[in-house]
Q: What sequence folds into this?
């Protein structure tokens, strides 16, 4: 059984999708954290407190990772996108405006950001790349730039 960077335990091979089970060590349950404590963690994160960001990560990572796995169906890609979501939250937290006191303000933002990034990743992987593609030269013809 392995534990990935998002704190999930898994007994399946790489890139196989399963319904994740959050690791319990140090991860507060959603019932244990009230909305006011999540808002307080967010305020402290916006002030640059790394410990508060760590607790916010522990609280939101199962949600974000779950959305990413659901959309991408690839655990490795889901881990990358989860990291991107939290990197974005850390870098731009002071500038992000959340409605403190509203139910699920930061959770809603994290879920939407994870979903948007997951869909973008799938679309970019499925989009043909016309730019930068150079067709091979046909026999008897000169290739581009020759």
A:
């Amino acid at each position: 059984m392995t534990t990935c960077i998002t704190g999930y335990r898994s007994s399946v091979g790489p890139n196989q999708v399963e319904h994740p089970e959050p690791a319990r060590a140090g991860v507060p349950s959603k019932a244990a954290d009230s909305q006011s404590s999540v808002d307080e963690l967010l305020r402290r994160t916006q002030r640059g407190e790394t410990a508060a960001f760590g607790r916010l990560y522990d609280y939101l990572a199962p949600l974000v990772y779950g959305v990413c796995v659901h959309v991408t169906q690839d655990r490795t890609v889901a881990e990358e996108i989860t990291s991107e979501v939290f990197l974005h939250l850390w870098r731009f937290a002071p500038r992000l405006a959340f409605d403190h006191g509203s139910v699920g303000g930061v959770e809603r933002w994290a879920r939407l950001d994870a979903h948007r990034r997951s869909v973008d990743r799938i679309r970019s992987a499925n989009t043909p790349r016309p730019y930068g593609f150079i067709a091979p030269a046909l026999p008897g013809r000169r290739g581009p730039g020759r």
Summary: The domain at 2-17+32-126 is CATH 1.10.1740.10 (Rna Polymerase Sigma Factor; Chain: A). The beta strands are 2-3, 8-10, 21-22. Residues 50-72 form the longest helix (23 residues).
